[in-house]
């Protein structure tokens, strides 16, 4: 992210809003199980003087200079629509309680700098703003900024993970952009009713407390135990050695290692559907066959985050996601990888269906049944995100939309399989070890080769 020169406009909660936050009473709806796990870690780090922020930024362009009051009013209306954005959390003894600020009390002021021409200075100002405001243990756990220019301005919206998933960021970009432009033009903007994430949290707790669901909880926990046991009592790691030393944390980096155009992606998806799969299971099959080719793995195992919305395009702001896993046999044959693709696709498709059934029980509730517990973030993740189903996605190129996350440290490899209107991008997050980039590039080349062979 290298922002072009401009004037930096920052939004800040007013003094009255901060007073309302301090006085907000406890809300009866607790955090979701996933939020609770995240918050317990965050409060523990905070008590040690450390930060726990995992913020995600979305940006988009708008014509002309930024009108600060229209910008603030768009954020205020967005907050009024989505109670989760007005939520904060407090640690009270061993409990974590939610509070919700009344919509009429959420107001923002703006501050503006002079012209800033140095991209590094611009980026530092934005990152400082995001780091101060987008943290889980403070309110509002999000930050809003813009770079104002005469012809075309750029708006940045940052949220800590406590409130959002990838689909939520896209929803926010789409709604806030539309509301801002309506404010600038002085026109009304009717919007559909937003789904309340607090209702989701309450329903999740009710389902967990129902004795009728205990058998399902224990069955899912047993599946997780078998998954861990299948890996020698360990969670999956990336198939190849990326040069990371045990118990060592590295700066993490993102790179795009593969981009397939729309025609190639559509053709591969049609092939997968003809044989009873879909694009995601086809990509998993290709990952599995590639792991077999380069590392001799006959079983493919990966952690899988999955969103649990009824509809990704629904106006639902919140962290609607959970965790499952995929595990399937890689069926290869002597006469080439293409000949084993259909069988591996069927195994991958069965694995994704099984993963979906596990989502009925919150992962962070299941973990409490597992002894010993494990750290799910220290493993190999495969994330499939269909950007074509995100609100406003058909305009992302025109609006110069992009998604960025803050820098973190670690030693694992995460794959992001991003379906877009332009095709498919394989984005990988990995430790900066010196050799990891080349190792991953070689593996992804093998994955691409499997797709080409299967499609041929």
UniProtKB/TrEMBL annotation:
<protein>
    <submittedName>
        <fullName>Condensation domain-containing protein</fullName>
    </submittedName>
</protein>
<dbReference type="InterPro" id="IPR023213">
    <property type="entry name" value="CAT-like_dom_sf"/>
</dbReference>
<feature type="domain" description="Condensation">
    <location>
        <begin position="62"/>
        <end position="379"/>
    </location>
</feature>
<dbReference type="InterPro" id="IPR001242">
    <property type="entry name" value="Condensation_dom"/>
</dbReference>
<dbReference type="Pfam" id="PF00668">
    <property type="entry name" value="Condensation"/>
</dbReference>
């Amino acid at each position: 992210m290298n922002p072009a020169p401009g004037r930096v406009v920052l939004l800040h909660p007013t003094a009255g809003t901060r007073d309302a936050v301090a006085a907000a009473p406890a809300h009866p709806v607790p955090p979701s199980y996933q939020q609770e796990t995240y918050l317990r870690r965050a409060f523990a780090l905070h008590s040690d003087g450390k930060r726990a922020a995992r913020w995600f930024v979305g940006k988009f362009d708008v014509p002309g200079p930024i009108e600060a009051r229209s910008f603030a009013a768009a954020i205020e209306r967005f907050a009024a629509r989505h109670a989760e954005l007005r939520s904060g959390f407090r640690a009270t003894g061993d409990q974590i309680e939610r509070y919700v600020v009344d919509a009429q009390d959420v107001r923002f002021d703006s501050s503006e700098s002079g012209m800033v021409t140095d991209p590094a200075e611009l980026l530092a100002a934005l990152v400082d703003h995001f780091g101060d405001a987008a943290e889980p243990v403070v309110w509002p756990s999000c930050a809003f900024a813009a770079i104002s220019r005469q012809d075309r301005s750029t708006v940045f919206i940052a949220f800590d993970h406590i409130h959002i998933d990838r689909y939520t960021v896209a929803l926010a970009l789409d709604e806030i952009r539309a509301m801002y432009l309506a404010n600038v033009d002085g026109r009304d903007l009717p919007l559909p009713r937003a789904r309340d994430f607090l209702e989701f949290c309450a329903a999740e707790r009710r389902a967990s407390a129902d004795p009728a669901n205990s058998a399902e909880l224990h069955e899912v926990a047993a599946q997780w135990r078998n998954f861990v046991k299948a890996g020698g009592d360990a969670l999956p790691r990336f198939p190849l050695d990326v040069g990371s030393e045990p118990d060592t944390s590295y700066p993490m980096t993102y790179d795009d290692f593969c981009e397939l155009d729309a025609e190639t992606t559509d053709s591969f998806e049609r092939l997968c559907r003809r044989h009873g799969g879909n694009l995601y299971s086809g990509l998993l099959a290709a990952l599995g066959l590639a792991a077999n080719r380069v590392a001799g793995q006959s079983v493919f195992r990966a952690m899988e985050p999955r969103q649990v919305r009824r509809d990704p395009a629904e106006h639902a702001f919140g962290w609607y996601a959970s965790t499952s896993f995929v595990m399937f046999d890689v069926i290869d044959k002597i006469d080439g990888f293409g000949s084993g693709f259909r069988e591996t696709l069927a195994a991958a498709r069965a694995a994704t269906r099984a993963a979906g059934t596990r989502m009925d029980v919150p992962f962070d509730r299941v973990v409490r049944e597992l002894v010993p517990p494990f750290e799910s973030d220290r493993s190999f993740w495969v994330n499939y995100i269909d950007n074509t189903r995100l609100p406003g996605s058909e305009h992302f190129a025109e609006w110069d939309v992009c998604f960025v996350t803050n820098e973190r440290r670690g030693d694992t490899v995460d794959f992001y399989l991003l379906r877009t209107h332009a095709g498919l991008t394989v984005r990988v997050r990995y430790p900066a070890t010196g050799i990891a980039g080349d190792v991953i590039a070689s593996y992804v080349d093998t994955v691409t080769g499997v797709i080409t062979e299967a499609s041929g």
